[in-house]
Design brief:
The chain contains no helices and 10 strands. The protein has 114 residues and is mainly beta. Strand 4 and strand 5 form a beta hairpin.
Length: 114
Amino acid sequence: QVQLVESGGGLEQAGGSLRLSCAASGSSFSGNDMAWYRQASGKQRELVARISSDGITNYKDPVKGRFTISRDNAKNTVYLQMNSLKPEDTARYYCNKVRFLWSWGQGTQVTVSS
């Protein structure tokens, strides 16, 4: 069974940066398209960035130009570099596959103060 463990969140001021990590254990994700999702309080979980198995990236408009997703298949880890943070980025962040999702991890909380 795959276990996803997200880390790197915290409290940051607007304009600051954070780097999130997500380690997968129990299965290799090298052949899977991976994504970062976020869920703000009272809202549905949404995909914000994705990376294909061969490294092609795609971003939702609210984070385009500010967030960068990357992956290290040797470490079974996917990253999300978050720059120029805004209060509206406040949410719990999760990683998972793009399709046929594994069980969700605990996520990591990102809080951006104005």
